[in-house]
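Lab meeting, item 3. Inverse folding demo.
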C-alpha cells in the first residue's frame, strides 16, 4: 500500500500479485498444510506433516494453487481462477523476463476484482 500511495503503481501491482499467491497458499494450508506443498518433493510433505527434516520446502505452482482453491472456496469459480492466473502470469513475466507488464496495467482493470 505504501508503493501505491507513493504513486509507484507497477511495484504496487507486483507486491499485490505476490500477496495474492501467499493468501491462496494460506487458505489451502488452513485446510491442511500438505495442500500447499509440492507432492513430488518428499521432504516438503514431511514438513507439512509436522516432521521438520528440511528448511528447503517446495510449494505448489500458482496454477495448481488456483485449481485447488476452486474446490475449497465456493466463490472461487473458473472466472476468478482465470483472473488469478492472469495476474500470476504477469508476475512471472515481471520477475523472470525483461518484460514490464505492470508498467502499462491500469489499476481499474484488476484492482476491484
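The presenter then showed the designed sequence:
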Amino acid at each position: 500500500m505504501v508503493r501505491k500511495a507513493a504513486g509507484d503503481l507497477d511495484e504496487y501491482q507486483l507486491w499485490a500479485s505476490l500477496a495474492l499467491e501467499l493468501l491462496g497458499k494460506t487458505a489451502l494450508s488452513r485446510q491442511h498444510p500438505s495442500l500447499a506443498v509440492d507432492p513430488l518433493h518428499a521432504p516438503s510433505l514431511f514438513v507439512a506433516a509436522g516432521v521438520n527434516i528440511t528448511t528447503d520446502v517446495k510449494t505448489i505452482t500458482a496454477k495448481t494453487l488456483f485449481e485447488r482453491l476452486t474446490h475449497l472456496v465456493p466463490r472461487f469459480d473458473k472466472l476468478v481462477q482465470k483472473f488469478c492466473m492472469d495476474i500470476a502470469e504477469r508476475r512471472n513475466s515481471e520477475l523472470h523476463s525483461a518484460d514490464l507488464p505492470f508498467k502499462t496495467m491500469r489499476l481499474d482493470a484488476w484492482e476491484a476484482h
